[in-house]
Design a protein that fits this description.
Blueprint lengths: L2 H13 L2 H8 L3 H15 L4 E4 L2 E4 L1 H28 L4 E7 L1 H6 L5 H7 L3 E7 L2 H9 L5 E5 L7 E7 L3 E4 L10 E2 L8 E2 L8 E5 L4 H13 L4 E6 L2 H9 L5 E4 L5 H6 L14 E6 L6 H12 L5
Parallel strand pairs: 3-4, 3-5, 10-11
Antiparallel strand pairs: 1-2, 5-13, 6-13, 7-12, 8-9
Helix pairs in contact: 1-2, 1-3, 1-4, 2-3
């Protein structure tokens, strides 16, 4: 059994297809099949079953995959330690983020970090939050910037910045009667009961922003009247500006056009924190370059 064999098995499990795994590894499919047969004979188990949706690991295969994941992770840690021993400065950090983080978080540290650490290469990986979590687990991403909630128990994280959702009603909506103020708060509130019968545009189910909105609705006992679901927060902004529907958006990510239009706070008993967090893999070796990036992110914690 070799490291290459383990890489082949991990790729097959990830892609759920011999053909896709072969393409991803740039090897011929017969080489993968031969690898599986060799390991099954060596271990005296069946690793995969063929189904109508592709290949899936057996119970014994799942057990072997856990061993493979740990072994490949240890090899990655070993390689990072060797790099640190061979060079006092420099290195590479693979930083994962979504589009929202690119627009809001990166400007607060990226330029300064590159000036302070010119020998460190930052490889930027833009992907969905779920993909970033999986990339960190697989050792393909070193540091991720995400929104709560974090799904994987294998990740460590700390808050970088806190945000809250606010309501942006349609200008044609009958929301004036729901406006109220609280002592000590300059911005107006909107009674959340306004949302009960109001057409809404929200991000798609499963996205972190939608999960937070659903938590708000659940707290308020509201079944949202969703007129449209979209993939990106930027699309919510555009549809709100043309009065397509009312929406909820993170306050710190509001555009200047939305701020000029006006928005309303949500009562604290219904509000949900929408924090930016910095994630790494638990118990994984962090390279010097990764630790320097994390130090910089700790320095700017709660400053924006």
């Amino acid at each position: 059994m070799t490291i290459r064999d383990m890489e082949y098995i991990a790729a097959i499990a990830k892609e759920k297809s011999m053909t896709k795994a072969a393409a991803q590894l740039f090897v011929a499919q017969p080489a993968l099949s031969q690898c599986v047969r060799k390991l099954e004979k060596e271990l005296d188990i069946t690793l995969f079953l063929r189904t109508v949706t592709g290949v899936c690991p057996t119970a014994e295969g799942e057990c072997f995959l856990r061993f493979v994941e740990k072994t490949l992770a240890e090899r990655t840690n070993f390689e990072k330690e060797l790099v640190d021993l061979s060079q006092s400065e420099g290195g590479t950090v693979r930083l994962g983020f979504s589009g929202a983080q690119a627009a809001f978080v990166l400007p607060h540290f990226l330029t300064n970090f590159r000036v302070q650490h010119p020998s460190i290469e930052l490889q930027l990986v833009e992907a969905s939050s779920d993909t970033i979590e999986k990339g960190i687990e697989a050792g393909e991403i070193d540091v991720g910037i995400l929104h709560l909630p974090i799904a994987s128990p294998r990740l460590d994280y700390f808050e970088l910045s806190r945000d809250r959702f606010v309501i942006i009603p349609r200008s044609c909506g009958a929301y004036e009667q729901y406006i109220y103020y609280k002592e000590g708060e300059k911005l107006p509130y909107l009674n959340i009961g306004f949302l009960k019968n109001e057409p809404l545009v929200l991000t798609q189910q499963g996205q972190r922003s939608r999960i937070a909105c659903n938590q708000i609705f659940e707290k308020a006992g509201i079944l949202p009247q969703v007129r449209q679901e979209v993939q990106h927060i930027g699309t919510l902004d555009a549809l709100t500006l043309v009065d397509y529907a009312s929406t909820l958006l993170p306050e710190k990510q509001l555009t200047e056009d939305i701020k000029r239009r006006g928005y309303f706070l949500i009562d604290e008993k219904y509000s949900v924190s929408y924090a930016f967090v910095v994630c790494t893999l638990k118990d994984a070796y962090l390279s010097k370059a990764s630790r320097q990036l994390l130090d910089r992110l700790h320095e700017i914690q709660y400053t924006f």
